[in-house]
From TrEMBL, chains A, B:
Residues 20-80 form the HTH tetR-type domain. One of its GO terms (molecular function) is DNA-binding transcription factor activity. Pfam families: TetR_C_11 (PF16859), TetR_N (PF00440). Residues 43-62 bind DNA. Residues 1-20 are annotated as: Disordered. It comes from the Bacteria. This is TetR/AcrR family transcriptional regulator. It comes from Streptomyces hainanensis. Keywords: DNA-binding, Transcription, Transcription regulation.
DNA sequence: CCCCTAACGGGATCGCGGTTCCATTAAGCT
DNA sequence: AGCTTAATGGAACCGCGATCCCGTTAGGGG
């Protein structure tokens, strides 16, 4: 959700130099604040202070906490983590599960993801940005499943995206709902469960 | 999280009649407000108005939005939905998945659950109340898995709670993160995937 | 049935987050 | 390099949500 939309209009817009510097400083500060205080504690004035930027600027460009989070999400979607290539479906899914687990248990990233998801439940535009974020992340890893189909490990017609989602789902469920510990054994189990269900043909698209 | 803890102390506490009536009116109003406006829009003064109760009372007894949500969660944990008894693991899990799906897509309950989870990410006490809520819900359905083990449908040593969680996880993942549609086919797939993974022995506790 | 006081409710008050105004800085075009 | 104006930043302002104060209502023991 580009908040810049109301820039320009008659004159020319200036995304260069200072503006970009302010934007990245504010987004980094917003990430810090979210990780520390959660979404409920996100105060635009505080973000401005952390970023070393005028309060007015932050209110003008992002207006609301959810607007700021939405912009942060579009930036997060751009930096992609490359997928693994272990040669087997289970190996690839396990690598993915461990990566997700490491992210969600990271002292900064974990609280940040919680906060971002909380923000998305409060605002449609933010929810859309979150949806796009996960769509790109999932698409990044889908080829692992496609290769497994080509290798004959999985039945033809298996939905790759659904398999990758199935790996993440239990980890996010623990993070957000059950609150159970998120250890490596849990991550491995998530990968094994997704692989077993996929092998059983559960994710074959029915026509 | 009982907010009543600072009541009494020297005199006697009075949970009867009026107090209980106020509490349930406020909790119902809080549920309505959360479902309509989300956690970010939860205003204690507004809740008081909806409940036909003085602002001061709400501020005194619950103090913060998260405190109110925490109390609401303990009440929600008390009303339990009974589990199904279809005679087969897959039948029971499918019944559970469909029940969860119906709840999450309900025009009132769905937004309410989103809001409650958002609140839990902002406050430790609320997160604990949410954890307890899901623990009771999961425990309610665990016997389905135990019976399946007794019937010989699943290997001995299968962790019942883990199987039940595996059914809910993909549905919550869609609700909160991916934003993909939550239709009945998805619910059935969640049940089938959990059953397949359980049958493959993924949820057997390793000693 | 009466009294004591826990608990509630209305109104006044206070503080802080959000907005507006205008001077200052620096992109970007010629 | 110089000019135009997009964009920033400080400071004053303002409105609304949270708190405080105190009179009123009603639970529950004697």
């Amino acid at each position: 959700m580009e908040q810049e939309s109301h820039y320009g209009g008659h004159g020319t817009t200036r995304p260069g130099g200072r503006t970009a510097r302010v934007r990245s400083a504010v987004l980094r500060a917003a990430g810090d604040a979210l990780a520390e205080l959660g979404f409920a504690g996100l105060d635009l004035a505080d973000v401005a202070r952390r970023a070393g930027v005028g309060r007015t600027t932050v209110y003008r460009r992002w207006a609301t906490p959810t607007g700021l989070v939405a912009d942060l999400l579009t930036e997060m979607a751009e930096e992609s983590l490359p997928r693994a290539e272990t040669g087997s479906l289970l190996g690839d899914l396990r690598a993915n599960a461990r990566l997700v687990r490491r992210t969600l248990t990271d002292p900064r990233q974990g609280p940040l993801f919680k906060a971002v998801i909380a923000a998305a439940t409060c605002d449609a535009a933010t929810a859309d940005a979150l949806r796009r974020f996960y769509a790109t992340r999932i698409a990044e890893w889908a080829p692992c499943v496609e290769q497994a189909v080509e290798r004959g490990e999985l039945p033809a017609g298996t939905d790759p995206h659904e398999v990758v989602r199935a790996v993440s789902a239990p980890l996010y469920y623990r993070l957000l709902a059950s609150g159970d510990p998120l250890d490596e054994a849990t991550a491995d189990r998530a990968a094994e469960a997704a692989a077993a269900a996929a092998a059983a043909g559960i994710y074959v698209v029915r026509t």
